TrEMBL record:
InterPro entries: Chromosome_partition/occlusion, ParB/RepB/Spo0J, ParB/Sulfiredoxin_sf, ParB_N, Plasmid_partition_RepB, Plasmid_RepB, RepB_N. GO terms for biological process: chromosome segregation. It comes from Mesorhizobium denitrificans. This is Plasmid partitioning protein RepB. Residues 63-156 form the ParB-like N-terminal domain. It comes from the Bacteria. One of its GO terms (molecular function) is DNA binding.
């Protein structure tokens, strides 16, 4: 083989390694185990130099900690457990052969001596636990806001999160009370973009979102369209789909396409809005109740409709307590 051909094949292998495993890419001409091994080593050395440079600039020292003494992050930022398991297995295989090349970052847990929380390097930590190895990491005192910013910045720098994972990451931060400035910093983007991402993640039912997974390559426009379709569709249709064995065997990208296609058919939304009406014998009040997958709208009409709506509003606290008691009784 000529030197020119070898360089071309090696470049192709490096390109292959950097692609998302679920994204369809052009086939690489060579599948030589030797080239794959060398390429993997070069890639890890590149990652190590970048990580080491960042940590050394900050004056950090790399230490080895008991992997079991490191707690997970409180903010989840990834989907696709099957994909994660595969990725962790590959990292573990590399670490078994070469050791841990790229260090992580942890912070001390307040009030628990010798206990730390992972900031970034979660998959490397999982691999170290599998192998029974010490975890190479820098230790930095960080508050909650600083930790989540580091976590997000590391993923953004490595282009590690898909669009919808970033949306879910932003929503998770908002739900635990982080300020918008912190969320923006963790994702290296502006407030308007963060608001849009949070809106998209909050409009998609969590069971559907987790069933689809990270959907690499699917950006804002198609997720926004999916949200629109969900608002006028019957959730029973997509619930049946995601529960099927065939759906679960699909890649994340194909799962997104399957849901999108289902919601795009006329049958998915044909009976999406359920309408109920109620009126007392005197017809002084007319109530319409319209329910979709995402919301229920109650309309008060007729001569006493507005007054009755005000009466109901004044009784909301008592009604909700009665509802809770009723729900608990049914659960018991």
């Amino acid at each position: 083989m000529s030197r020119k051909d070898s360089k071309g094949m090696f470049a192709a292998v490096l390109g292959q390694l950097s692609e998302d495993k679920e994204r369809e890419v052009a086939a690489v001409r060579s599948s030589s185990p030797h080239l794959l091994k060398v390429a993997a080593g070069v890639r890890q050395m590149h990652e190590r130099s970048e990580a080491a440079e960042r940590l050394l600039r900050a004056g950090e020292q790399i230490v080895e900690l008991d992997a079991n003494a490191i707690q997970p992050s409180s903010i989840h930022d990834r989907y696709d457990e099957a994909y994660e398991a595969e990725a962790i297995s590959e990292i573990a295989a590399s670490m078994r052969e070469r050791g841990q090349i790229v260090p992580g970052l942890v912070r001390p847990v307040v009030g628990q001596e010798g206990v730390y929380q992972i900031v970034y390097g979660r998959r490397r930590l999982a691999a170290a636990k599998q192998l029974g190895m010490k975890f190479k990491t820098a230790i930095r005192d960080l508050n909650d806001e600083e930790a989540v910013i580091f976590q997000g910045e590391e993923n953004t720098a490595r282009e590690d999160l898909s669009f919808i994972e970033k949306c879910a990451f932003a929503l998770a931060q908002q739900e635990v009370g982080f300020k918008r400035d912190t969320i923006c910093a963790s994702l290296s983007t502006g407030k308007s973009h963060v608001s849009e991402m949070i809106a998209i993640a909050s409009e998609i039912p969590s069971d559907l979102l987790h069933s689809i997974g990270k959907a690499p390559g699917i950006g804002r426009p198609r997720w926004a369209k999916l949200v629109q379709k969900l608002q006028s569709s019957d959730q029973a249709s997509w619930k049946r789909l995601i529960a099927s064995a065939d759906f679960k065997r699909l890649t994340s990208l194909d799962r997104f396409e399957a849901v999108f296609k289902l919601l795009s058919t006329k049958s998915a939304g044909r009976h999406s809005a359920q309408l109920r009406r109620w009126a007392p014998p005197d017809k002084e009040i007319a109530i319409s109740i319209k329910s979709t997958a995402k919301k229920t709208v109650v309309t008060f009409e007729a001569s006493n409709g507005q007054d009755f709506a005000g009466f109901i509003t004044d009784q909301l606290d008592d009604l909700y307590e009665a509802f809770q008691r009723s729900s608990k009784a049914i659960g018991d």
